Amino acid sequence: MSERKVLNKYYPPDFDPSKIPKLKLPKDRQYVVRLMAPFNMRCKTCGEYIYKGKKFNARKETVQNEVYLGLPIFRFYIKCTRCLAEITFKTDPENTDYTMEHGATRNFQAEKLLEEEEKRVQKEREDEELNNPMKVLENRTKDSKLEMEVLENLQELKDLNQRQAHVDFEAMLRQHRLSEEERLKQEQEEDERETAALVEEARKRRLLEDSDSEEDAAPAPPQPAVLPNPSPNPNPTAILDEGPKAKRKMESWERSVGTLGSKPQLSGLVVVKKTGLDRSTPQGQPAPTPGNVKNGKAADPAPRTPGSSSLSQLGAYSDSEDSSSSSN
Fold this sequence. Notes:
Blueprint: E1 31-36, E2 41-43, E3 49-50, E4 55-68, E5 71-79, E6 86-92, E7 97-102, E8 104-106, H1 110-131, H2 133-165, H3 169-216, H4 244-256, H5 276-280, E9 293-294, E10 297-298, H6 318-327
Antiparallel strand pairs: 1-4, 2-3, 2-8, 4-5, 5-6, 6-7, 9-10
Helix pairs in contact: 1-2
C-alpha cells in the first residue's frame, strides 16, 4: 500500500533544473499575513484605542534601501477597527522593537523613553572620558562616594533588622490581645449604661403619663343601691299601673271574680303573718311588693284601708253582696 504523503519525489533521468523557468517577482511585492498589534496605539483619525495583542490581517512588504547589519526591515499595513484608516509601522532590529510610522500614535512609552535616556547619558559619559582623563577621575570619585552611601544605608537597614530580631512577638501579640479585650469590655459597659439610661427615661415618662391621666380622670358618681327582690306577694290586688298589660289583667280579674268588698265583717278572724321584710320596714311604712320595685327604686306604696287587710277581705266580694241583697 502506497503512502498518502510521499517524502521522496521522482526525478526522471533526463531532468535538468536549469531548464526550469524562473518566476520574476517585484522586489516591493506585498504578502498578506496574520499578526497582532505589537504595542498600544491610538488612531489619529477617529481616536480609537487599539490595545496590544489585537489581531489583524496585515499586508507585509520589505522596506527598500533600509538594512541593519544585513537584516532587512519590514513594513506592515493595518486598518483601524472603527474608521478603517490605514496605519503603518515597521520593525526596529537595532532596539528589538517596532516603530510607529503613520496613522496612529504609540501609547505608554515611558519605559522606552527612560531606557533611551539612560543610554544617551551613558554614551555622553563615555565620550567625555575618552578625551578628558580628569573627567574620568571625577566620575570615579562620584561613583565611590555613591557606593559608600549605599553601603551605609544598607548597614543601617541591617542594624534595624537586628534590633527588630530581638523583639518578642509573642508578648506583642499578647499585649494586643489584652488591649482588644479591654476595648471590647469598655464598649460593652458603655452599651449597658446607655440601655439603663433609656430604660430609666422610659419609666419616668410612663410615670408622668400615669399621673397626668389620674389627675384628668373625674371621680365617678356613686351608683344607687339596688334593693333585693322580696318574696312574691300572694295578694292579687296589689297591682300597679305597669302599662296596658297590667290594666287588662285587672279588668279580667274583676269580671271573673269581682271586686273586693270594703265590709270588715270577717276582718277580725284573719291574722296577717309578718315576713322579714315587714320586720325590717320601719313603723308606719308598708313593705314593698315585687310590683312596687321598679328600676332599682321603690315605688309609692299602694293605699291600704285602715283596719283591714287584703287577706281579711277575701270573703267579702261585691258578688256576694249582690247575691245577699237579691235574696233579701
